[in-house]
Amino acid sequence: PLYYVYTLKVKNKIPCFITLAGGVVNVLGMFALLKLTGLGVYAVALTTAAVMGFINLVTNPIYISDCLGIKPSFVYCPLVRILVSAAVMCLVFHCVANLISPTSWLTLVISGITCVILSLPIYGFIAVGPSSLRMFLRRITKRG
Fold first, then answer.
1. Distance CA 65, CA 47 (A)
2. Which of 7, 33, 103, 143 is most buried (most C-beta within 10 Å)?
């Protein structure tokens, strides 16, 4: 939802320039990596990940906080929690893949279901936070 702040506040000029600049840097970076390295198609993924990572982790949170008149830490705290939860989930998924070691469609589905089940509490406690998670669960049980 934070990335729609520009639209809601009708402050789209700076994000448009950042998007255009990011696109130019992305294309130039791809050409440079393709010409100067042996990365091949990985150059496309690498430059896109680097440019989009910079935009989404540096420029967007700062401009969002400026548009809303809040401290950047208010935007960065949830982003850091989400990144930490993603890292923990990747580690858990790697362990699941090593334990189950999918060799058929059935074991792949079992591995996927196991990862989904394990990711829910990880994301809930790290990214959402225990107090927000309790509030959410209370609301669900009252309506159920």
1. 26
2. 33
According to the model, what pLDDT value does residue 1 have?
66
First to last CA, the chain: 27
Q: What 8-state DSSP symbol labels residue 56? A: I
Question: In this structure, what token pair is assigned to residue 23?
Answer: 């696109």
For residue 118, the model assigns a pLDDT of 96
Q: Contact, 96 vs 118, CB < 8 A?
A: yes
Give me the count of residues in the chain.
144
Burial class (CB in 10 A: 0-12, 13-18, 19+), 114: middle
- Residue 43 has a CB neighbour count (10 Å cut-off) of 19
Assign 45 a pLDDT band (cuts: 50, 70, 90).
very high
Residue 90 in contact with residue 84, Cβ under 8 Å? no
In 3-state terms, what secondary structure has residue 14?
helix
Cα(129)–Cα(2) distance, integer angstroms: 18
Cα 70 from Cα 136, distance rounded (Å): 25
Q: Give the pTM.
A: 0.72
